[in-house]
């Protein structure tokens, strides 16, 4: 489980920056409008980080992962809202795919 969470966190710091998507519902935080997809994505990543914190031996890697995630979040929030949403949709898809893979592997 530890290796899965660390690998998942590392791969989600590289977001697919692809062309335009639709902004569904957005929320303003500190004057910055955050698309709903990004709110969901950031929340799911935070959950994965919390799960990784529970795993023995991950603490050394978590500091770097948190820094990478923070930098990636800042980069996403610099994008146009439509591109933010599309990038976060890609991140949500990757998280979902990784979760499905982890579920299949744990059932084997």
Which properties best describe this structure?
108 residues; two-stranded antiparallel ribbon; 4 helices; mainly alpha; 2 strands
Write up this protein.
With 108 residues, the chain is mainly alpha-helical. Helices cover 70% and strands 7% of the residues. The chain has a two-stranded antiparallel ribbon. It is flat, with a radius of gyration of 14 Å. 21% of the residues are buried. The model is unreliable at 13-25 (pLDDT under 50).
> Helices and strands, in N-to-C order?
HEEHHH
Model regions low in confidence, pLDDT < 50 over at least 5 residues: 13-25
End-to-end separation in angstroms reads 14 Å
Protein structure class: mainly alpha
| Number of DSSP strand runs | 2
**Strand line-up across the major sheet:** 1-2
What radius of gyration results from the CA coordinates?
A: 14 Å
Shape descriptor reads: flat
Strand content: 5-15%
What average pLDDT do the residues reach?
76
Helix share, percent: over 70%
The number of helices is 4
Q: What can be said about the biggest beta sheet?
A: 2 strands, antiparallel
SSE inventory with pairings:
Blueprint: H1 2-12, E1 26-29, E2 32-35, H2 36-53, H3 59-78, H4 81-107
Antiparallel strand pairs: 1-2
Helix pairs in contact: 1-2, 1-3, 1-4, 2-3, 2-4
């Amino acid at each position: 489980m530890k290796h899965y969470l660390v690998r998942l966190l590392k791969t989600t710091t590289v977001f697919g920056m692809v062309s335009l998507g639709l902004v569904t519902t957005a929320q303003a935080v500190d004057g910055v409008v955050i698309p709903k997809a990004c709110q969901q994505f950031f929340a799911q990543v935070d959950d994965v980080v919390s799960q990784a914190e529970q795993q023995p031996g991950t603490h050394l890697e978590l500091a770097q992962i948190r820094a990478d995630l923070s930098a990636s979040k800042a980069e996403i929030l610099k994008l146009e809202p439509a591109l933010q949403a599309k990038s976060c949709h890609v991140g949500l898809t990757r998280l979902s795919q990784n979760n499905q893979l982890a579920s299949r592997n744990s059932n084997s």
